[in-house]
Amino acid sequence: MEKILKMDCDEAISYVKDNVNDYDYLELSYNRVFTPGEVISVETDHLKGKDVCNVMIQVKGDTVRNTILIDLEEVKDDLIEMRHVPKDKEEGILIEIERCEI
User: Strands 50-59 and 25-30: what pairing?
Assistant: First the structure.
């Protein structure tokens, strides 16, 4: 059975930084966008006084197979949920995002 966690957007981004690795499967739902695919890389940095959490995903789809780069810090207020399945695992973790304080 898939584990379900509830987090605010900042906790969810920290989860990605600490637990998501290359070649894991990650589904991101934010705003009206659904992005499922294999993680190519997760890069974190602090640039010009701003935190950055870039996730590069090889999108899986019937019509689109593309690599995209998403800065989770940029879309954090629009995050709805994430599903993370570590490579070599059958079951994943569903993270339901609670609204962040603006």
Answer: unpaired
The structure's pTM equals 0.86
C-alpha of 28 from chain center: 5
The single-letter code of the amino acid at 66 is N
3-state secondary structure of 74: helix
Domain boundaries, the chain: 3-97
With a pLDDT cut of 70, the percent of the chain lying above it is: 92
Per the CB < 8 A criterion, the answer to whether 89 and 20 are in contact is no
pLDDT tens for 15-41 read 999 999 999 999 999 988 888 999 999
The identity of residue 31, as a single letter, is N
SS3 1: coil
Length of the chain: 102
Quick one: fold of 3-97? SH3 type barrels. (2.30.30)
Q: Could you identify the residue written with the tokens 């969810």?
A: 12
Structure token digits, residue 90: 């059958």
